[in-house]
Amino acid sequence: MTKQQANWSPYDNNGGSCVAIAGADYCVVAADTRMSTGYSILTRDYSKICQLADKCVMASSGFQADVKALQKVLASRHLIYQHQHNKQMSCPAMGQLLSNTLYYKRFFPYYSFNVLGGLDNEGKGCVFTYDAVGSYERVGYSSQGSGSTLIMPFLDNQLKSPSPLLLPAQDAVTPLSESEAVDLVKTVFASATERDIYTGDKVEIVIINADGIHRDFMDVRKD
Amino acid sequence: MFRNQYDTDVTTWSPAGRLFQVEYAMEAVKQGSAAIGLRSMTHVVLACVNKANSELSSHQKKIFKVDDHIGVAIAGLTADGRVLSKYMRSECINYSFTYDSPLPVGRLVVQLADKAQVCTQRSWKRPYGVGLLAAGLDESGAHLYYNCPSGNYFEYQAFAIGSRSQAAKTYLERRFETFVNASREDLIKDALIAIRETLQGERLKSSICTVAVVGGGEPFHILDPETIQHLIDAFEIVGDEDPPANEQGAAAAADAEEGATAEQGATAGEGGDGAADEGAAPMDI
């Protein structure tokens, strides 16, 4: 007598990849714009990136319905924060809020794999990386989503501090300049697009620095 | 004024069909410092008198942003006002979350009025002791509403509440027909003049008043003290000139009024330069 399995799942995976890299005074957050289901493409033009606060941007891959719901909840919570504190939430504060929001649904999770990027209270770049239930860590760079297994090792190769054998190993904020970091992101997505079927079409690149937020697009392979 | 027998409970009617506790709550509004609102086709302006208890303390916050398109000015028990603003903010956020569009002002004031009514019909509650002037913009245009502790609400072209508001109301009644097509700047000037009316001769400075605007693409926001001080200086120095957006009758009446205050303005003008530093508002929390 085998256990009965559900014949309907509340989740779907819409695919896609997200990347974030923290610099000394900037942060780059990028994600592709392809939304898929199964082996089909739903649209080539869907943004996975959401600006949560002045200096805080979130990219999420996974189940986009859950991602949208999560973005709405965070936006509402941010509005409440602004009413109560008369200022914008900092990136680290938003980082904690995101973690708590995800864990709140520990037993029916948001199927959302997030990277949060922005500037911390001192104006330095910061990146936070999450799992679906809110476990998070501040890092110098991260990737999530269907292409992350292809992207992350390459970022480790390029950005990780020279001696990983030395303890404590730390993801130092990269010494790269802003334009070098953007070039790295473009390279990374071009490569992931080659081998991951769920990554492609366009890459949306968002740069956060002291001047504000700037958005760019890059075309990649559409097959 | 004391109708002792029937005024202990909000749930007790008087033989004349009145709820005295509700009326006493409206009295609390009349004791609060003045707040005024006025609207045109495209903008709504709220202004209020903001006096601190002493030089050492900050002043009471009487104007609250509820959402990008709605703000309120309160008079009466400011703590009740603060709590109601929190409720209004929450309602706006929930509405945008569900419908992805801004809460229409008329809907919000009804919800507020219903909330106030509940407190007039529960023996374990008391009415809110605060009057709210809600200013906002929605698809049907610019709106100004007044919400009472009784649970009543009315829409107005212009209104004033709080202590010595009758002086402001008189001014507004004379001028309200010009408001509909007034420019943003004229509306703000009219608001400042109305506030000045409630001060009964005391000099108007940006440190004792707060002004907020919404409309014409601008989200609801409180004007900074420097801007307000410039506007105050502009119309107090302009002693003999006709006020902007004229009407025959209004101009004649306003001229007489401007003439009288021009003397005040001129003598206070010299003192004003020395007191220019005072013009900046105290530390806002």
TrEMBL record, chain A:
Query: Mind listing the GO biological process terms from this record?
Result: proteolysis involved in protein catabolic process
One GO cellular component assignment for this chain's record is: proteasome core complex
Q: Which SUPFAM superfamilies match?
A: N-terminal nucleophile aminohydrolases (Ntn hydrolases) (SSF56235)
Q: Which InterPro entries match?
A: Ntn_hydrolases_N, Proteasome_bsu_CS, Proteasome_sua/b, Proteasome_suB-type
- Subcellular location field: Cytoplasm; Nucleus
Q: Which domain of life is it from?
A: Eukaryota
Question: What keyword terms does UniProt attach to this protein?
Answer: Cytoplasm, Nucleus, Proteasome
- Key word DNA damage present in the record? no
What residue stretch is flagged as signal peptide?
Answer: none
Give the UniProt family note. Answer: Belongs to the peptidase T1B family.
| Purpose of the protein | Component of the proteasome, a multicatalytic proteinase complex which is characterized by its ability to cleave peptides with Arg, Phe, Tyr, Leu, and Glu adjacent to the leaving group at neutral or slightly basic pH. The proteasome has an ATP-dependent proteolytic activity. Non-catalytic component of the proteasome, a multicatalytic proteinase complex which is characterized by its ability to cleave peptides with Arg, Phe, Tyr, Leu, and Glu adjacent to the leaving group at neutral or slightly basic pH. The proteasome has an ATP-dependent proteolytic activity.
- Subunit composition? Component of the proteasome complex.
The name this protein goes by in its record = Proteasome subunit beta
Q: Which organism is it from?
A: Liquidambar formosana
TrEMBL record, chain B:
Matches recorded under Gene3D superfamilies: Glutamine Phosphoribosylpyrophosphate, subunit 1, domain 1 (3.60.20.10)
**Region labeled Disordered — which residues?**
241-285
Which locations, inside or outside the cell, does it occupy?
Cytoplasm; Nucleus
GO BP, one annotated term: ubiquitin-dependent protein catabolic process
Nucleus among keywords: yes
Decide whether keyword Disulfide bond is in the record: no
Q: Which CDD domains match?
A: proteasome_alpha_type_1
Q: Which InterPro entries match?
A: Ntn_hydrolases_N, Proteasome_alpha, Proteasome_alpha-type, Proteasome_alpha1, Proteasome_asu_N, Proteasome_sua/b
PROSITE patterns reported in the protein's UniProt record? PROTEASOME_ALPHA_1 (PS00388), PROTEASOME_ALPHA_2 (PS51475)
Q: Which domain of life is it from?
A: Eukaryota
Q: What keywords does the record list, in alphabetical order?
A: Cytoplasm, Nucleus, Proteasome
Report the principal subcellular site. Answer: cytoplasm
> Which GO cellular component term is one of those annotated?
nucleus
Can you give the residue ranges of the Proteasome alpha-type subunits domain? Answer: 6-28
Purpose: The proteasome is a multicatalytic proteinase complex which is characterized by its ability to cleave peptides with Arg, Phe, Tyr, Leu, and Glu adjacent to the leaving group at neutral or slightly basic pH.
Q: Quote the PANTHER family the UniProt record gives.
A: PROTEASOME SUBUNIT ALPHA/BETA
Q: What family does this belong to? A: Belongs to the peptidase T1A family.
Subunit info here reads: The 20S proteasome core is composed of 28 subunits that are arranged in four stacked rings, resulting in a barrel-shaped structure. The two end rings are each formed by seven alpha subunits, and the two central rings are each formed by seven beta subunits. Component of the 20S core complex of the 26S proteasome. The 26S proteasome is composed of a core protease (CP), known as the 20S proteasome, capped at one or both ends by the 19S regulatory particle (RP/PA700). The 20S proteasome core is composed of 28 subunits that are arranged in four stacked rings, resulting in a barrel-shaped structure. The two end rings are each formed by seven alpha subunits, and the two central rings are each formed by seven beta subunits. The catalytic chamber with the active sites is on the inside of the barrel.
Q: What is this protein called?
A: Proteasome subunit alpha type
Q: Which organism is it from?
A: Liquidambar formosana (Formosan gum)
